[in-house]
Protein 1
Amino acid sequence: MTNGFLRVGAATLLTKVADCEHNTNQIIELTVKAVHQDVSILVLPELSITGYTCGDLFMQKHLQDQVVEQLIRLKKETETLDITIIVGAPLAVGNALYNCAVVISQGAIIGITVKTHIPNYSEFYEKRWFEQGHNLSQNQYLIDSVHVPIGVNMLYQHRDFPEAIFGIEICEDLWVPNPPSGSMAVAGATLIFNPSASNDLVGKSEYRQSLISSQSAKTIAGYVYASSGYGESTTDLVFGGQCLIYENGTLLSKSTRFVMENQLVVSDIDLERLLSDRRKMGIYADGYQNDLLKYTVCPYHNSFKPLQVNRYVDPHPFVPTDPEKLHVRCEEIFNIQSIGLAKRLEHIGCQTVIIGVSGGLDSTLALLVCMHTFNLLNMDPKNIIAITMPGFGTTDRTYRNACDLILQLGCTLKEISIKEACLRHFLDIGHDPNIHDVTYENTQARERTQILMDYANKANGIVVGTGDLSELALGFATYNGDHMSMYAVNASIPKTLVRYLVNWVAHHKTPESAKNVLLDVLDTPVSPELLPPDTDGSISQKTEDLIGPYELHDFFLYYCVRFGFSPSKIYYLANMAFYELYTEATVKKWLIVFYKRFFSQQFKRSCMPDGPKVGSINLSPRGDWRMPSDGVVRSWLMEIESL
């Protein structure tokens, strides 16, 4: 296991119905293949030793004896293989036959899970042969002179890595209203394995995938599913051999159906990520002890080798890669922002908003939100008073874009230069205006905020803030300057998503004349424009040159706040996600900057204004993030330095 990742596999085999020796040969072959791919836990289909479609042959004593014989052979021939396998087998226990999943690890059968729900409808006649698991009269099964735990309430926990705990539900168990995996998850199972024999019908595959996706999300678990395939009897049914691996609702890997060969799918489940989500939800902690008491916990022990993790890590976790999903996401976020502002305006009986527009991305998005809000409320856009406040660093390009956009949207344009006021303030406090330090920069930001606040009083309106989530995380805002407003519509929008939102609005919510301005805003470098332009009039102060690429910082923020990952794991994931763009040294450099700023700038977030939460991460001190302003970052930095 590497950085919380555990490699799992699901396999389907070329079955020969009732030929236990052949099927066991195929299982051994697939197990060896899985070991070569560093799989730690492998699941095979339901009744994989015999085949699912044996019918009344299940009741033959010879077949039942063959099952036991091949299970003993299987555990012996896999004794030297560093893997835990789950195979399906019919087992006679006392006066009945049970549909079972047998767990084998390092030459031992460590436990047997019995199928709880027996289907007996449509094409399924399992009750003809199998008894329900709840009717099992004993909790031990004797095989090869060893008593093995058996039952419906079984969990399997690694001896060295307690978070690697799994439960098993068999086929129909998933399809009932209250699947056993729900209780297993509350009791601690982070992984659910499902050996299945689900025949294929038109449309069934899509429904099956949605069912597994939903259950993995409901249980916040990894869900590994293996179904019977080619070789099962086709007397009445056909089995496509679908194997699926999900993590908390997300598909990680799947097989191709209707293939006439053995198949193995492999993926890496992030157990740390699952546990992080669970620890935020009281239900898992509240129900843990009571649910765990009803389970028999069987230890297993195979070594978890260091992995070269084999899964895609999205470099932009806030931005969907699928264009259709991105469209839906942008529309939803834009509506959340607008409805939030609309409610605030209605609640306080306000007809006017004041917004500072610089020609940059953040203020552009905030202005567009104001415009949409006024449309929703049937209010005159002239009551959106958009103030551009050119200063020492304002370039012609951003100034022109700000003015053009305001006019194209039909808002009220006000231009108030801050230069003379700032020079007067420099004189008052004894600051040399030729020294372009933090005083020089912050004076401009605070002057702009003062103008906005005072104009809001004059116009009986409120100031709409423009700062985004990334700036709040890094503290890249002037305290009591652009840090402050009366309602901050971008407060939980990360910088990497702001760009996509503006682009979406440009193509879906604005007239053609405004669209061209928005596209030029999108093409402008991110800058606070507080330092004088270059000699050619271009922006000289580029934010990402100062604090690092926003795509890196948004990535760090996502995994730091959303999952509470350690710096070393975030570093590991970032190098996977950005291996073609940034060197490891570059990632490390900006990760240090992120943690230093994230800790030291909490005091700004402690008194941030109201603003709508739109996604899974929000830094409001009244909502998702409560952090002391005096938290010490030293140990986080020490971990990064040691990488």
Protein 2
Amino acid sequence: MLHRLARTALSVSLLLPAATLAADLIPTEDFARHAPISHPQLSPDGKYVAVRMDDNEGNMHALMIYAVTDMQKPVSMLRMPKYDMPLGITWVSPTRLVIAKGRQQGSLDKPSYYGELLATDYDGKHQDYIFGFDVAGSRAGTRATDKGWGYVVGTPEQANGHFYMAAESWDSRGKYSLYDVDAVKNTRRLIGQISETGMSFMIGADGQAHYAYGSNEDDDYVVYHREDNGWAKLPATQIGATFAPITYTPDKQRIYAYYNAGNGPSMLVEQDENGGNRKVLAKNSFDSVGDIQWTPAPSQPFAVVPATGLPKPTYLDANLPTAKLHMAISQKFPGSYVNFVNFSEDGSTLMFQVSSDRDPGTYYLIDTHNYKVHKLFNVHPWMDPAKLSERRPLHFTASDGTELEAILTVPRDRGENMLPMVLLPHGGPHGVSDDWFYDQDAQFLASRGYLVLQVNYRGSSGRGRDFKEAGYLKWGTAIQQDLIDGVKWAIKEQYADPQRICVYGASFGGYSAMMTTVRAPGLFKCAVGYAGIYDLAMMYKKGDIKEEKSGRSYLRNVIGKDDAALAANSPTHLADQISVPVLLVHGEDDQRAPFAQAKAMRAALDAAHKPYEWLSKPGEGHGFYSEKNTVEFYNTLAGFLDRYIGAGAPVSPAVAP
């Protein structure tokens, strides 16, 4: 239990002079700005850094190469066509890179790969088209059949200009061809095939794919092992509920993998390739093993952090030189997490990132011989971490006895008790979770004086298969109860003022913003749905999830097919029970949660004669991507919250939890 200050009837924010608050207010524009450079990758010889450059308002993106000795002037720039961006950056030699093209449709979307692969030298010369639907490049005359998607799935341990590629044809969906590709000569050699969709691959030191694993088109998790010249599907008794191979041990005799025999949190194990002599390297009772820190080649894990809570490293062998280096660097950055991004091949140069709940990240290089540190760049150089707010991972018990994680973002200089609070449910809902690191929405709301509560409800990632599947078919019931229980816990602990609580969420969080007000009438003063899903049955008819067989299988598993149940858990059918002011925000080109979802919710509120406010933008996808539109949205959100739970909002008795 964290120490709390004595209970007070008024938030400290109400006692501070308005001029003081205004002077300390971080401009909305600072939260809306995209990082200009990101996703750095160190070259194998440690001499160059490749980064993605984004000019989002100009819709211009590029691959930039810098010498590590001069991050002010790029050695070269590869501009991408309008709206395209370099999503994947892979060094295949000290002088050559492979770039995966893609696009991000909205701020809530994961970037979408086009399946196109390009190659270039570090100085911008010898650019070539490696794979994709655009018949171009040095092999254009023989690549007319490249109508599909290509993905980088690995590289040789020693960079030699080659990489491993999985290709899926448009005409043979679910069938992968694996190639060893020479990115210099733009030639390829077939090394395997498998007829199963949704697969990831582990490539061995012999250049062959040894494992294929993932969720197939029926949304079933499967693992295949390469035996002789074919694939053998491993039985459930061998893979347990979770088995995901990672890489080989330094002696190439065994492998590292995530594993769990039951349905609980995943462990890090070392085992024979055939599954024998399994040894547990790290495990937790509450959550899975999360991030793994690796030594330089030949790689072995030296530390792990849990998938939830504070990212405190557990060192597997504290005597390893790399572990000692990590501990020494971590001591120089108290309160932050140090992530070893990648080493040069000889291990003499290391790129690492330092980040925290208040710092989106700063990248550095260190010479591992003389320990000289060189700062590369800040992800958000305009943000001052000292002006941002602390995020605290905590646990509470739900009404059915389930232990859950909550993350509180506590506004600076406002005290810790009886604060106006915003419940911020995450999207997904499955395979997604909130964590301790910098969260743009939470920090924006905290900067405006609001306590922010995020709950990793059942269905979230990081705690194993049972916990994830506990949210299946429970979108409108148990998941919403977890969120409501979190609010009641925050009230009981006197963090939140029960008379000043709103809910705001995006994507599935937008769905929850409407549903929590239905399931707990009187608990909230307002609700904001951003890019939300409001009609569950519509998900089978509109949106990109239903376009793939695996997506339709997913929907059957997580929301079901019963029309009555879908209606009973859809906000569009429950609008008459929403008794708080509503703000609906949506991108008109949203493919994940189509604009029709927002229009259906608006029509339902109209029919029920319920008040609402509306903001939509043409050209925006699943979440606003334009910085200008994001600024307008954040200002609209802040004004809406201020009217109902801000300093000047009217106060009325709330329903007791």
